[in-house]
Design brief:
It is a single chain. By secondary structure, this protein is α/β, with parallel strands linked by helices. The chain has a single domain, classed as Rossmann fold (3-Layer(aba) Sandwich). It is built from nine helices and nine strands. The chain has helices at 16-27, 43-48, 63-77, 100-128, 149-169, 204-217, 225-236, 249-268, 270-274, and strands spanning 7-10, 31-36, 53-57, 82-85, 91-92, 131-136, 174-181, 194-195, 244-247. A seven-stranded parallel beta sheet has the order 3-2-1-4-6-7-9, sandwiched between helices.
């Protein structure tokens, strides 16, 4: 990504990381397409730098809106240097409690909306041989907890897709960065989260407890979204941005615990795992 006057496009700017990231980008004197399903909710951000900010209506579930927003940003600014796929939300339910329509709707936003936005900006980035795709995942894209299995499934999908994308576009001068926050004081666990009305007694001690903990934690998380926004921008400016950017102490600790547990399990079952190939051919 070019570092002199980069143009950013950020999805989901009405609340949370998207809002703070848009403000951080504009505070650094850069230009930004600030998007939301309701542009009125980002009007105050754009008013802070009307000559450098563009409010755009964007529901990432609507492919036509995605392409129209990208085209509008390119007309206004001439290019897009960094796309931040931030739009998304969570869903609370044990796996058996999940409602098909709600789960599919979350995949539409968290996964397919991200894919559509990425595909829309890539032609321009390929043509200019530079760019950065920032996909906001979660520590829940690396490790899982009860009650958020379907949300984890969307973020694990984002992780795998992003890693493949990075291999494909790096030779073209385009970087990919996956942002993996722990709990932050956004609306994720509050107004933005959706929840299955089905609650089965057999899951009360697992998914039920986690549902209650998640709701109770809203507004009291350790993570500061403004500090997260600065960290994302600082990482984006690195000569080689990280593929994985963990945010927050819980995220770092949980990722290390997952790596340690995975390594221990691989070691414990290594002999059985290695015994499943065809025997080597005899000379």
């Amino acid at each position: 990504m070019r570092h002199d006057d980069p143009v950013w496009m950020i999805t989901g700017c009405s609340t949370g990381f998207g809002r703070d990231l848009a403000r951080e980008v504009l505070a650094r004197g850069w230009r930004a397409a600030v998007t939301a399903r309701d542009p009125a909710k980002v009007a105050d951000i754009v008013a802070e730098a009307p000559d450098r900010a563009l409010a755009l209506r964007l529901d990432v579930d609507d492919a036509a809106q995605v392409h129209d927003a990208v085209a509008a940003a390119q007309r206004r600014f001439g290019r897009i240097d960094a796309l931040v796929n931030n739009a998304g939300y969570g869903y609370l339910a044990a796996i058996e409690e999940g409602e098909d329509a709600a789960v599919r709707a979350m995949f539409e936003t968290n996964v397919f909306g991200l894919i559509e936005a990425t595909k829309a900006v890539l032609p321009g980035m390929r043509a200019q041989r530079s760019g950065l795709i920032v996909n906001v995942s979660s520590i829940g894209g690396l490790t899982a907890f009860s009650a958020t299995g379907y949300y984890h499934a969307t973020k694990f999908a984002v992780e795998g897709l992003s890693e493949s994308l990075a291999l494909e576009v790096r030779p073209l001068g385009i970087d990919v960065m996956i942002v993996e926050p722990g709990p932050f004081r956004t609306h994720w666990a509050g107004a933005s989260i959706k929840e299955s009305p089905i609650q089965l007694d057999d899951y009360a001690s697992t998914a039920g407890v986690r549902r209650a903990q998640t709701r109770a934690r809203s507004g009291n998380q350790a993570g500061d979204p403004q500090r997260a926004a600065r960290a994302i921008v600082d990482a984006a400016l690195a000569p080689k941005p990280p593929l994985h950017l963990l945010l927050g102490n819980l995220a770092v600790d949980a990722a290390r615990a997952k790596i340690d547990a995975l390594r221990a399990e691989i070691d414990a079952w290594e002999a059985l795992s290695r015994g499943t190939d065809f025997p080597p051919a005899r000379g």
